[in-house]
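User: Predict structure, ligand alpha-L-arabinofuranose.
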Amino acid sequence: MTDNAVAAVTIDPDHHRGPVDERLFGSFVEHMGRCVYTGVYEPGHPAAAGDGFRTDVAALVRELGVTLVRYPGGNFVSGYDWTDGVGPREKRPRRLDLAWRSIETNQVGVDEFLPWAASLGLEPMMAVNLGTAGVREAAALVEYCNLAEGTAWSDRRRANGVPKPHGVKLWCLGNEMDGPWQTGRKDAEEYGALAAEAGKAMRLVDPGIELVACGSSSHDMPTFGYWESTVLEKAGDVVDYISMHAYYQEHDGDRDSFLASGASMDAFIEGVIATADAVAARRRWRKRVDISFDEWNVWYQSRFPGSEVLPIDTAGPRIEDVYSTLDAVVVGDLLSSLINHADRVKIGALAQLVNVIAPIMTEPGGEAWRQATFHPIAAVTAAARGNSLVTRVTAVQYATRRHGDVPTVSAAATHDPATGAATVLLTNRADRPTTVDLRHGAFEHWETRSARVLAADDEGPRDKAASAAVALTRLPADETAAPGTTRLTLPPHSWAILQAAVRRPD
Ligand code: AHR
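Assistant: Predicted complex:
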């Protein structure tokens, strides 16, 4: 007699959506709070390299395994003059940043940040200011970053000591331009027209770039849907991607709804795909606009009083969320949602990379440490390769206040035919153990190499000392339950990752 729930997940190497783009596992560094200053960059810190960037943070970024970094904002970009951040440091202005009401010292700008990203193998994704600036400033930044020499801006870069172009391929046309909080917010028609013109000019500078138009700031925006279709009607000929942003949190102890965040993300993504495809059909495009999910995470936004009440300050803490193991389980499940839409979501950026709302935290002058959310991200970036498999999940549903009826188990899987590696992610959203039969009989060979799990506890947010104890632990895998099946029992409110070798050794 057991009170375990039961579920089944079936996978087949031939039933897939194509490859997961490696840019799906990106991150985000914004000039916000302590993300840049005393986050990635802290001259004088014992671990700082000659350029002032912290080597202890860089080591954790490598371990986290992210592939891409969006920069410099976020809301920050809508008031940013990128020319403030280049040239001799002693001449750079201290500017009032209206997004976060802080003083931006401009000691880090594109010529410091982009080499740092390159040193870590991170593809840069630059955002241009379409809030308080426009076409001219955006095109000038592409010229500064990407042209070799012989023009005013490329020669300015060379004079600033950067002889080779930075070669930035991916560009965001502004940030959250539908948000009332955005400096220089626009309506959909206005933004779509501006994005089209800015994108056109930027491409005239460098035809090789890719462009991301702003989608809605969240699924809850009143203009969601209308915004996407209007922006794509106006700028769809020029852009390659439409952006999505989403933050999740537990509201008023409603754990059931919070654990269903992945299902909510699924619905949001599917809504944006439907809207983009409707515009494409109406316009008879041969091209397809894909998705850049360039801000996502757990963020306790309800605890943030709003920028307008913050005293003007240099980069202080502002927002610094400390995460629980429950938050980490939800982050793992959100990664499943992204992988399950890998045919259309090509770019992802966890917001953010260091401090603020991030898997890596730092102490000024002190240690860098891993938050609970670090662990599922690092596990997925290390293992999820190759095709995104279509998973067939049979599980009971449970009722949630915010997201309706949702399956108690979610799953995502990848298979890399080149290496013969398969990875399966499983979330148990139920408040009791769930025994999952993973049916992989369609693979000619299956050898489970490891199965690890993270179960949410009731301890709440973990500070630095408590976070050190968070780790994925071994999950027993029973290969004898039935032919072609691996049986796993997931603890309540848990996230698991299983890795297998699926090709016979030669
Ligand atoms: O990531 C933090 C902020 O969230 C970003 O600046 C903004 O784009 C979003 O609202």
